[in-house]
Design goal:
168 residues, alpha+beta, TolA/TonB C-terminal domain, two-stranded antiparallel sheet, 7 strands, 28% strand
């Protein structure tokens, strides 16, 4: 191509050198932050009773100490966005070795969902899990409002009361 011929060993060495150069350059040139301390998120009560579930993607700015300064939500229900942002600003992150200085950011994903268990009359149990590097999952039991029949027996009881009461 350029009038220069290389033997197979030299070509392999050159390819490997280029690969190492690009890998090191990418690792050093990027700013890589990881979650160091997290606080378990809760499921917003209103969202539980309204049975709102979904995913909230957050883009968060971090100061040099790793404290989350602010987050902007991209998608998701407003009730869930608010809960995710309020939780994320309580987290602390750590820069990995080799990261460059600058305005750091981290992307977080919050997934709010309900368990497959039947609805409950008591305060719903909420489970928080974190999957490295940035995925928070909040799973709640489905709450049952006090003024509505919830279980099959309650529905049956409600229907029998309805039939026995004459209309005015």
């Amino acid at each position: 191509m350029f009038g220069v011929q290389f033997d197979e060993t030299t070509l392999k060495t050159m390819r490997l050198s280029l690969l190492v150069f690009f890998c090191v350059r990418t690792a050093v040139g990027e700013e890589i932050w990881i979650v160091e301390k997290l606080i378990a998120a809760s499921y917003p009560t209103l969202a539980q009773f309204a049975r709102v579930e979904g995913t909230v993607n957050l883009n968060c700015k971090i100061d040099d100490t790793g404290r989350v300064l602010e987050c902007i939500a991209d998608g998701g229900h407003p009730l869930l966005q608010k809960a995710a942002i309020e939780n994320a600003v309580r987290w602390k992150c750590r820069k990995t070795e080799g990261s460059r200085a600058g305005q750091p950011e981290i992307k977080l994903v919050y997934e709010f969902s309900f368990s497959d268990a039947p609805p409950v009359r008591h305060t719903p149990k909420v489970e928080f899990t974190f999957e490295y590097p940035n995925h928070a999952r909040i799973v709640s039991e489905v709450p049952c409002p006090d003024h509505l029949p919830c279980t099959a027996s309650e529905v049956q009881q409600f229907k029998s009361k309805k039939k026995s009461k004459p209309l005015p």
